[in-house]
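This part of the workshop introduces the protein records we will be handling. A record pairs a protein's sequence with a compact description of its fold. Comparing a sequence with its tokens is the quickest way to learn the format. To make this concrete, we reproduce a full record directly below:
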Amino acid sequence: MKDHINYFDDIASEWDSLFSDEERIEEVVSKMNISQVETVLDVGCGTGRLIPHLQRRLKNGGMVLGLDFSLQMLQNAKKKVFTRVMEFVNGCAEELPFKDTKFDRIICFAVFPHIIDKEKSVREFNRILRKNGILNIFHLKSREELNKFHKNLNRVVKRDVLPDENTMKKILENGGFREINIINKPFFNYTVCLKA
């Protein structure tokens, strides 16, 4: 994991300039039906690119926490002005530093392939979600496009893959999730499921 942390620390300063898909992110988030009072955890929040899209949906009582294993990414996120952000937390998905049943929703945007122990992280997601809590995992590439993209980077992340649909369902089911829906098409991969 140390190599991954160093990799993302090194690219943190240029991270925001690498992407320009705000309209597509907004479109995906708008379909999540996030209520105004949800407590949301943005796992792998990076520099906070997803947070403005969440803020627009949260009102009094709703809040978002950002978690990332890269301190440099978090430092860049903290320089931005966000409302309804309780805090940014340094930590990894495999050992979430939160109490049981704390969140209504967990969102993993462009991060799941980079989680080393996916099975353990999904069990942790289940632990900190409330009853019927929602897990959203999404990427702005298909599984095939994403895995090819990472492989061609030829760096630390070249082996970071998004599992195939059957493997993904098994990981989620074994981690305590139900009603698993996976969509994989060009320029889009989306998974949503509920805590069992």
The mean pLDDT is 94.
